[in-house]
Structure formats: C-alpha cells, structure tokens
Amino acid sequence: MIAYVWPESRSSGAGFRMMEWVHLFVQEGWKVHVSSPSQPSEHANDLAALGVESSPIALNDASFDRFVADLQPDVVLFDRFMMEEQFGWRVELNCPKALQLLETIDLHTLREARHQVVKRTQAVALEVTPQDLFSEIAKREIASICRVDLSLLISDAEIDILQHFFGVKRELLHHCPFMLDASHRPAHMPAFEERVHFMTIGNFRHAPNWDAVLWLKQTIWPLIRAQLPKAELHIYGAYAPPKAMAIHAPKEGFFIEGRAEDALEVVKAARICLAPLRFGGGIKGKLADAMLAGTPSVTTSVGAEGMTGGRPWSGAVEDDAESFAQAAVALYQDAILWQQAQQRGDDILQHWFHKKQNETALLARLESLMANLAEHRLHNFTGAMLRHHQHRSTEFMSRWIALKNKPADIQ
After folding, report:
1. Strand partners, 167
2. Cα–Cα distance measured from residue 106 to residue 247, given in angstroms and rounded to the nearest whole number
3. E strand or H helix at 26, and its extent?
4. Which domains does the chain have, with CATH numbers?
5. What are phi and psi of 65, to 5 degrees?
6. Which of 122, 261, 331, 339 is buried most deeply by CB count within 10 Å?
7. Phi/psi of residue 355, nearest 5 degrees
8. 3-state per-residue secondary structure call for 226-266
9. What is the pTM of this model?
10. What does the alpha-carbon distance between residue 296 and residue 340 come to, in Å, rounded to a whole number?
11. In DSSP terms, which residues pair with 54 in a beta bridge?
12. Residue 186's pLDDT is what?
C-alpha cells in the first residue's frame, strides 16, 4: 500500500478508509506493507501492532525501484492518483505482474469541479457540467484510473460520473462503500432526552469541511440560534488552523473544539449532527459516524450522495440555509421525529454499509482479477496506450528530477 500520508483513522475519512483495507487484508492472512513519502505523524495508526510492516519511501528517487523489486508484491494499492502518477511506472517496471489498484478516496475531479461551482454561485453544487469537470486535474486523475487494473470507488454516484462523462469502462471500477458492523458502534448510545446540543466534525485541512464551517458560522447557525437561544454548536476536527480558532464564539454558542480523540464519543453525546457540505466527493465519514452513534443528521444533497442506496435519510437533506436550519430545529425538538431518523440510519447501516457483504464482493473481485490479469489487461487498450512511453510524462519528469538531484560529480 502506497499512501499519500500515513493513515490516521481518527483524523479523516481517508485515513479511516485506508485502515479498512489494512484490517481486511490482515484478516485474510495477507502480508501487508505500507509505504509513504510523507513525514511520520504522532496521530498515525500503530501499524506494527497489527503486524503490518511500514517503510518510508522517497519521491523521484531510484531507491524505490530497489525497494519494490526486493518486495515483489502480488498487489499494489495506491491511495489517490498522485501516488500512482509518482510510483505506478516504477511498480510496472519492477513488478510487471503485480495487480495495481487505485483507492480514489473521493474523486478529486468532482470535488474540484463542484468547488468552482460554489465559488460562482454560492449554492450547493450537486450538479456539474462537462465544462466544470474537464479540468487539468481530470486529465491526470482519469488517466490514472485507466492505467491501473482496478479503481475502488466508495460512491456509486462517482461510478456513474466516470462512465457517463468520461467513458471509463465498468470493468475497471469497483464500488465498495464503508464496511461497517456492530463492532464499530459505541457500547452505549444515549436516548433523546440524554443528549444535548449540535455538533459537526471534519478535518480542517479538507476544503469542503472548512467551507461548511463558514456557512454555519455566517448563515445557518444564527438562524438555528434565533429559535433555540440556549443551544450550542460544537465543531471538532483535526488540524484546526488559526483562522478557525478566530471564529470561536462562546457567547454565540459557537465552539471550535479541535481534535476529538474519539469521534464516536463526541458524536453520540450530541442530539443532532450538522453537515452543510456545499461541495465534495466520495461519501462522508462524519455522516457514517453519526449513524453508528445513533445521531440523526441534517446535511445537503452533496453530503447524502452515495450514502443511502435509495433508502430514506437519517434526518433531513436540505440545500438552502433557511430550510436546513428549520429541519435542524424540528429534529432537535421532536423526539418521535428524532427516533424515526435514528431508525433510518440503522437501516442504511444494515443494508448499504454491510461489512461482510462488501468485503466478500471486493475479495471475490480481486481474486478473479489476479487469476485473469493478462486477459483483463488485454481488454484495457486505453490503459496500455497511456502507459506507452510517449505518454508517460510523469515518469520522465521524475527521472529528470532524480538526475538533477544527484551530486554533480556522479552525473
């Protein structure tokens, strides 16, 4: 597994997702080795405790060739297309029979397109046009998706976009939502009467989360507070910057709390989770956590995308500030409405995020690919074309940087 950053399952949905793969592969008896060019973090998961080896790797450096050639993995999983750009060609050169997987986390192409729509319209950006999508990021990300043997998508909506807008073949894509079961739930979940206040959570380095916090601060929370003057909103998230701490306003019931050591504990203490996401991709860890903690949520169509399998939402989905605030107040005050929303969350968890079901489907797909890899690649001419030397600009840029970084006396 080649990770953009060392997995931090308590800091972000991306970290949680990567640890899902680690646990699954260890559970299956696979020998797992995680590598990353990023700096170690005190908040990273303890991989050694799981029997997982880890190795730092360098960007634009031939040392990775020796490392991966010695390792000779059967499967290589890149998390995010940037890692495939940087290391995919080296894996192919040294381990040509290794199955290459891309965990997209969320489609950067879609997230960026929606961000541009929000900048123009200041509205929730569920719908995008080809003009929004066909960006420089898209050219890179879609090329990466075509080069690898299989891309793992957490959202079925993103699979539809890849097929409809970009013509990516379905056999190059696999849909796998979060894999959750009762072991992920808190031992005790407080009842409606035991809970108080609102909350939200999300890594502050993730642009959609910061946009949501600002929308809460400037528009939505004042509307809620006007009807519930004693209510408080507690905002948790890793890596809170000074600009976030600057909007901490206890007199307004608006609290920037920073990192939560245990996300489920703070989620289950609140009566309502608020997630006014105007742009983004993938599916939202904070909303999955809310369902696990039995906490109804109010979100947008972007927030709920890919998270229900067609089932009713665990709370309310609203795309304008006034309706969002009104739905939050109604859920906060009505115990019956609240309990119904909680039950809908349980239904989604049981049917859409079913751990065993999603794990079984994924493992069957991987086993089939490993048994028929040559034939699979034969049907992916676009990927073969993109790996052709005339189109491998990232490889030759990397080689040039590596040469430039060598001392002059050995060039």
Report:
1. none
2. 28
3. helix 13-27
4. 13-179+356-410 (3.40.50.2000), 183-353 (3.40.50.2000)
5. -60, -45
6. 331
7. -60, -55
8. HHCCCCCEEEECCCCCHHHHCCCEHHHCEEEEECCCCHHHH
9. 0.92
10. 9
11. 34
12. 93
> Under 8 Å CB-to-CB from 281, ≥6 apart: which residues?
106, 107, 108, 109, 110, 111, 114, 155, 158
At residue 403 the predicted structure's pLDDT band, cuts being 50, 70 and 90, is: confident
* DSSP per-residue string spanning 337-373: HHHHHHHHHHHHHHHTSBHHHHHHHHHHHHHHHHHTH
Residue 36 belongs to what H/E stretch?
A: strand 33-36
Instruction: Determine the residue type at 146.
Output: C
Task: Note the Cα 94 to chain centre separation in Å.
Answer: 29
Token pair belonging to 179: 């894999």
Q: Report whether 245 contacts 254 (CB < 8 A).
A: no
Provide mean pLDDT across the span 25-51.
Answer: 96
| 369-407 core/surface letters (b: 16 or more CB in 10 A; e: else) | beeeeeebeeebebbeebbeeeebebbeebeeeeeeeee
Question: Parallel, antiparallel, or unpaired: how do β-strands 233-236 and 297-299 relate?
Answer: unpaired
Section 385-399 average pLDDT: 73
| Both tokens assigned to 372 | 């028929």
Is the distance from CB of 36 to CB of 2 less than 8 angstroms? yes
d(CA 82, CA 142): 11
Please answer whether residues 47 and 25 qualify as being in contact, where contact means their C-beta atoms are separated by less than 8 angstroms: no
Q: How many other CB atoms sit within 10 Å of the CB of residue 134?
A: 15
**What is the residue whose two structure tokens read 């380095």?**
205
Q: Over the stretch 277-319, which tens digit does the pLDDT of each residue have?
A: 999 999 999 999 999 999 999 999 999 999 999 999 999 999 9
Distance CA 281, CA 207 (A): 11
The residue among 168, 149, 150 whose CA lies nearest residue 109 is 168
The residue count of the chain comes to 411
Q: Phi and psi of 301, rounded to 5°? A: -65, -30
Residues 124, 279: Cα–Cα separation, whole Å: 6
Instruction: Look over the chain and give the mean of its residue pLDDT values, rounded to a whole number.
Output: 95
Pair of tokens at residue 176: 């796998």
**How far apart are alpha carbons 200 and 276 in whole angstroms?**
9
